[in-house]
Amino acid sequence: GAVVSQHPSRVICKSGTSVKIECRSLDFQATTMFWYRQFPKQSLMLMATSNEGSKATYEQGVEKDKFLINHASLTLSTLTVTSAHPEDSSFYICSARTGTENQPQHFGDGTRLSIL
Amino acid sequence: GQNIDQPTEMTATEGAIVQINCTYQTSGFNGLFWYQQHAGEAPTFLSYNVLDGLEEKGRFSSFLSRSKGYSYLLLKELQMKDSASYLCAVLDSNYQLIWGAGTKLIIKP
């Protein structure tokens, strides 16, 4: 149980392109979803927290107009990197949690984004 | 400020036992998680401790002492596939998950 699907797994595109990443909870209802970014050999950096049906809460320093998050249903959240540039190249990982806050987060497989 | 400390890297031998320590200073405490992350992959959940003591799950065990702000992850009968980073994360009083930088575990034959 607690399977989270994330795709695409890898994206290579030109600078200025907008990229959409999907995160789905396959066998549970995710009341809360999280989006992380991880640079090589560094720890996870939380970008934003989204609750179904409400606006995402962004961490300090994360531009909400650049990283658009939509959590339209209890099983789907999307992250759109708008007008991506090479410095946005990173490993983006979503996670989902159900129920109370002390439940573990279950992670998708991540999306490796490379902007040329 | 909130802080989680764990060693950057550890090396152990196949078949042996290794203990990965984690100390934390956070504003409140609502539990501690351990995750495993293989290179280039997303983290997978290993354990959750909220009460003091040892929780055993197969070859992996996790220990918590809230008074000392200390936890460890114990891996027994090490296998080559256990080579990965191990992340300690604490749920603070606001139920925000504070992540450690991770411990890279290298297993040698």
Residue share in β-strands of chain A: over 45%
Total strand segments of chain B: 11
**Major protein interface:** A-B, 19 and 19 residues
Q: Can you count the helices of chain A?
A: 0
Oligomeric organization of the protein chains? heterodimer
Mean pLDDT over all positions of chain A = 92
Q: What would you call the structural class of chain A?
A: mainly beta
Layout of strands and helices, then pairs:
The complex is a heterodimer of chains A (116) and B (109).
Chain A: E1 4-7, E2 10-13, E3 19-25, E4 32-38, E5 45-51, E6 57-58, E7 67-73, E8 76-81, E9 90-97, E10 106-107, E11 111-115
Parallel strand pairs in A: 2-11
Antiparallel strand pairs in A: 1-3, 3-8, 4-5, 4-9, 5-6, 7-8, 9-10, 9-11
Chain B: E1 3-5, E2 9-13, E3 18-25, E4 32-37, E5 44-49, E6 53-57, E7 60-65, E8 70-75, E9 84-91, E10 97-99, E11 103-108
Parallel strand pairs in B: 2-11
Antiparallel strand pairs in B: 1-3, 3-8, 4-5, 4-9, 6-7, 7-8, 9-10, 9-11
How is this structure best described in words?
The complex is a heterodimer of chains A (116) and B (109). Chain A is mostly beta strands and 116 residues long. Chain A is built from no helices and eleven strands. In chain A, the strands form two sheets. In chain A, strands 2, 4, 5, 6, 9, 10 and 11 form a seven-stranded mixed β-sheet that branches. A four-stranded antiparallel β-sheet of chain A has the order 1-3-8-7, with no helix packed on it. Chain A is globular and about 40 Å long. In chain B, strands 2, 4, 5, 9, 10 and 11 form a six-stranded mixed β-sheet that branches. In chain B, strands 1-3-8-7-6 form a five-stranded antiparallel β-sheet, with no helix packed on it. Chain B is mainly β. In chain B, a hairpin with a 4-residue loop joins strand 7 and strand 8 (70-75).
In short:
The complex is a heterodimer of chains A (116) and B (109). Chain A has 116 residues and is mainly beta.
